[in-house]
Amino acid sequence: MAIPPVIQTSSFLNRNSLFFKVISICVLVLLLLIPLSMIHYILDDRLDQRNTAIEDITSTWGKPQRVIGPVLILPYRYQYKETKSVLMNGKTVDKETVVTAIANAYFLPAQLSIECTANPQKLYRGIYEAVVYSAQLKLSGYFNELNFKTLNISQQNVLWDKASLAFAFTDLRGTHKALNVKWNSQNIPLTPGIKLSDFSSGIQASLEKFDPSLPKQSFELDLQLNGSRELQFAPVGIENQATIHSPWPDPSFKGAFLPTERNITPEGFQAHWNISYYGRNYPQQWTDQESTPFRSSLVQDSTFGVEFISLIDFYRKIERSIKYGILFIVLVFTAFFLFEVTAHLRIHPFQYILVGAALCLFYLSLLSLSEFMLFSYAYLIASSVAVIMITLYSLAILKSGVKTIFIGGGLIGIYGFLYIILQLQDYALLLGTAGLLIVLAAVMYTTRKIDWYQNN
User: Which end of the chain is more exposed for a tag (fewer CB within 10 A), N or C?
Assistant: First the structure.
């Protein structure tokens, strides 16, 4: 007698119920990637809003500053031959003529000394903050006797009365008074504009009374500069010494050179650089008859200085924590599934979804709370809410105090482990991998005696 198809189908489902349960849980895990990606999108949107607020603040206060210079500029005459076509006796003939033109020779100082006192502060736009500073700078040093022979320039062709001194700055809006540079014993006013072709903004002084007979040409410039986030200098001297003082307790030293000496305390820091010109990729002198070696990209690669940062960027920590979201869901769902198998419970897929939703909302809670309080407090509150919700719901699902305590304790351990990983940088991957191996070993040990075929 043939078995009706309905009975055959029912028998097949019963025999493979465990297999289909695993498949359904895997599908639910994949579906929960959707809310996780939506939370990540919200995080990106909040980051964009934060960055826009910072740009609004810094656009009126001052941008991140790079101080480059001084550069001594000396125009000179030179001649070259040019062939022109001219009309002679009704015929076009080529005639060679000598043309006199003017070019510039550029010289960098032999010694550059930088003294800087920076006073950072935080400015707010809504709930967002930006670190800005006001820096008092003193640039001093000297130029050695100028060597025109290496540039193939005759000193008779140099236009000494057209000499000028140039400094490049990123943003000079924070300078509130007229500036003067002390050149040898003269005080010379500085005017806006710069003759360095690859730099967009700066100041320059006209050295009309340049005295080429002096063995050294000294300079000194004092100014106040407003900026935001970072302050960088270019080592344009053969020898460069720089000292930065600041009451900011969390500096990040950046650039091509680190300080040779530093002293960082909760009350602030002091850093000193001693740099030679061998670590940069542009010469000490050149002319604009050749391709300009003093390009902004090369100079930027050689800059050094400090970044004034907030100690904790919680957005980056939340972004890292979301990457572990799928592992959290898999671990919790695995625990519920093992309880189903070992205790012969039946947990509906909708109940899995509710638990997964609580796990996803942890990240949204963490993001919203972190914008108003310290990250550690926000993490404690968000994780506590998630643990309490899932634990109480597990009590109704599992109908066992022991199993519920296991779920609650496991969640506390997972969230605690994640917090430790978020505090680490270099060892986060190693510790995370070790933790997952331990969890996998525990699951394998727990399920080693289960007869999966019999449980079908």
Answer: N
Instruction: Express each pLDDT in 80-136 by its tens digit.
Output: 877 777 667 667 767 777 788 899 999 999 999 999 999 999 888 878 888 899 999
- Note the pTM of the prediction, 2 decimals: 0.73
Q: To 5 degrees, how large is the angle CA 197–CA 198–CA 199?
A: 95
Enumerate residues 6+ apart whose C-beta is below 8 A from 11. Answer: none
Beta bridge partners of 113: 140, 241
Element holding 433 (H helix, E strand) = helix 428-446
From residue 43, give the alpha-carbon distance in Å to each of 288, 317, 368, 454.
49, 11, 10, 46
Which amino acid belongs to residue 138? K
Residue 269, token pair as written in the block: 């820091």
Bridge partners of 136, per DSSP, are 117, 224
Rounded distance between C-alpha atoms, residue 126 and residue 98, angstroms: 66
Strand partners, 417: none
What is the Cα–Cα distance from 138 to 185, expressed in whole angstroms? Answer: 16
User: What is the per-residue burial (b if ≥16 Cβ within 10 Å, else e) of 191-206?
Assistant: eeebbbeebeebbbbe
How far apart (Å, rounded) are the C-alpha atoms in residues 432 and 418?
8
- 110 secondary structure, DSSP code: S
Check the CA dihedral 103-295-67-130 and report its sign.
positive
Q: What is the pLDDT of residues 282-311, one digit of tens each?
A: 999 999 887 778 888 889 999 999 998 765
User: Which long-range CB contacts under 8 A does 421-424 form with residues at least 24 apart?
Assistant: 421/320, 421/324, 422/317, 422/320, 422/321
Cα dist from 176 to 140, 211, 225, 313, 318, whole Å: 21, 31, 9, 33, 41
Q: How far is CA 12 from the centre of its chain?
A: 58
